Amino acid sequence: MATITRVRGIRTRADGTWAIVKIETNQPGLHGIGSASDHFRTGVVMAAIEEVLAPKLVGRDTADIEDIWQSTLTSGYWRSDSVMGTVLAGADMALWDILGKEAGLPVYRLLGGRCRAAVPVYAHAAGDTLEALMDDVQRYLDDGWTYIRCQLGAYGGGGFLEPGTGGRPRASALRPPFDTTRRGAFDDEAYLENVPAMFGALRNRFGFGPKFTHDVHEHLRPHQAVALAKALEPHRLFFVEDILPPEHVAYYRHIKQACTTPQAMGELFTNVAEFLPLVQERLIDFMRIRVSKAGGITPARKIANLCEFYGVHTAWQEGGDNDPVNQMAAYHLDLASWNFGIQEENHFTDDELAVFPGHAVTENGYMYGSEVPGLGLDIDEAAAGALMVPERAARPKFMAEDRRADGTMVRP
Prior knowledge:
Layout: E1 4-12, E2 18-25, E3 31-35, H1 42-57, H2 65-73, H3 82-103, H4 107-110, E4 119-127, H5 130-142, E5 147-152, H6 188-206, E6 211-215, H7 222-232, E7 239-241, H8 252-258, E8 263-265, H9 276-280, E9 286-287, H10 291-294, H11 297-309, E10 313-314, H12 324-336, E11 343-344, H13 350-354, E12 361-363, E13 366-368, H14 381-387, H15 390-393, E14 402-403, E15 409-410
Parallel strand pairs: 4-5, 4-11, 5-6, 6-7, 7-8, 8-9, 9-10
Antiparallel strand pairs: 1-2, 2-3, 4-13, 12-13, 14-15
Helix pairs in contact: 1-3, 2-3, 6-7, 7-8
């Protein structure tokens, strides 16, 4: 068996927001990589890899994946914080990558083998106007996609009171002179009016063949989230994503009592157990934790197995800030999980993909990975370094703030 001799972080992407864990062993040429990317705290993640993860793992047997995960989780006493959970996920993926290479098998075969021929993914269609959104939806349909997320502009679009930011124009709200809104005041009632109308127009044009989703991004107050789910029921969405923030997940009980609109939740979960009541009470339909925020492949496969018994499907979260390594980890879980539901698409540039030879390929709404042992991709460290733009990487990054008319921040 191989022994861990070195653990280090590799930072890449133009803005420096991708952090990759590389674990090296005493076996010549045998190493593994995993994703520890955190768009807003990359520097903290890199420091944690060097100062916490490496001293904990060096000298361990690479095959002891479960014990390494369990002992690292509790090694700092307090557990399930978003940074260390992501760092642990990077190590966990890298260890599965090594195990696959030693076995001469892709990771999904170690997880039980494939349940499907390929992995369907959903597209991101958007437009600041309904006409622009419809054009974007048509573009994806023409390219063979079936599952399409539909948004009026950026998150919250359809709920902003000024014209030109998504939805039908409305009168500007009177706001205090200290207002700091970036793109107009967010108004729950405007969102409740415009988003169901948007899907009504989409169904009138495209029918019920396309499988539409929508991301609320936690913008609504809880009782209005219930109202939105009920209003969307006639439009038969594939799911509504993050209609509630983690602080108010108890309101999913009210949603389930009011309608059958499928619910997807989990993007902001970091604790390995906080999702349990939602699954056990059958309050959600799709589990959307990011694999690197769940803690890696080890806990994610347990989550998937648990969800199967409660009729909940997986929809591992991806998004524009994610990297090809986490995408590939999710792909292996998707192939091996009977209760897989859907995966989110990613958009990478050619230069970004060149950093990760063996990366997944998406065509006509389906994602395909390689049969190379392990995760199936590697990292070109020279290309990774060349991709970085130091001045961009040095800029602090924070989640965008939307605010209501009186200046109150909307929680994402």
